[in-house]
Structure formats: C-alpha cells, structure tokens
C-alpha cells in the first residue's frame, strides 16, 4: 500500500485541480455566450450537418459501442500475457466503464436543464437556467445535463488506469485519445446546440472521478500491486 500512495496523491491532486477549474468555468457564466457563437434565432446551422451530426454524433456513438464490445471481448476471451493486466483486472475495469455509461444518463433523467436548442432565443420555448439551480424548471423538456454523448469517450478513462501499472506509455496514449475524442464530441455537440461546454466538462469530471475512486478501491482490495 505504501507504493500506491504517491499515485493516489497525484490522482487526487489532478481531480481537485480539475474541480477547481470547472468551478471557475461555472462562475464565469460563459456557457451561454459561448454557445451563442453557433446559434441564431432560427436555430443551429450545424445541428444536422454531416460533420457534427453523422460523423461526430452517430459515429461517436458507434465508436463508443465498439470500444465497449472490444473491452468485453478482451476481458472475457483474451488470455493475459505476462506483465499485462489479469483477467480479473480487465473485468473490473469493464465494470467501471459500464458504471460510467449507466451513471451519467441516470443523472440526466433527474435533471431539469434543457438543451441550448430548446431556448427561446434559438427558436425554442425554454429560458436559460444554470444547471446548478437544482429544481428550477426552465420551460423546456429538460434532461440535458450532463452530456450523455461525451461518455462515448470519457466513459473509457478506466483503460488508462488498467494499463498504467504495466504499460505506462500505452496508458498515456489511451488517456490522450480519450481526452481528444471527448473534446471533439463535446465541441460537435455544442456546435449542434445539444449541450453547453459545462455539460461535457462535467461528464468528463464525473467519469474521471469514478475511475480514481475505483482505482483506489482496487488497490485496497489487492486487485493491483504495481504502481
């Protein structure tokens, strides 16, 4: 356990820094001004564009399912080689990915925040209400916070934690890809009017935090011995 402490402290520091920056973004009030750069009184021109709707949205969703299926097959049928994650570890982090994929949409179901394209200034009927004003109805259909689409990338932060003790370089590559795809999906959804930037940021933070807690739990349970 002593060897794990530096890694846990680093993960905790990163998590707290991300929370601080996310809080700063929330207090900046820039969510709506930023999304206005993509919308007009007639709506969002990028809403049905091939690049944002077909490639980033539908393609991103398909990519997320493909990665989940690959992770499932890797956990169930691939025989681990020496100095690679065990079958038990692979199954554990598969479970964490599923938890991310289930938890974020569950939060959406109980949240009253509507998507930007539902706002009156973009042709809808809702008025802007910050999502942190819990229980305040904005006049729209709600169920838009946090971003469900972003879990197609951020839901797989666990692959970084899975490979970090064994192949640190590979783990960093995975982390970079998750962040890059998550940012791309978030930008596309913001351009479509489907989400504010904070929706994507919160999804990333939630998925990362769940993985950090899962990694700490796994270490304490003896699922990992390396750092």
TrEMBL record:
Keywords: Membrane, Transmembrane, Transmembrane helix. It holds the Pfam family PAP2. CDD domains: PAP2_like_6. It comes from the Bacteria. Coiled coil: none annotated. Residues 94-217 form the Phosphatidic acid phosphatase type 2/haloperoxidase domain. The chain crosses the membrane at residues 90-107, 145-163, 170-188, 200-218. InterPro entries: PAP2/HPO (IPR000326), PAP2/HPO_sf (IPR036938). This is Phosphatase PAP2 family protein. It comes from Roseateles albus.
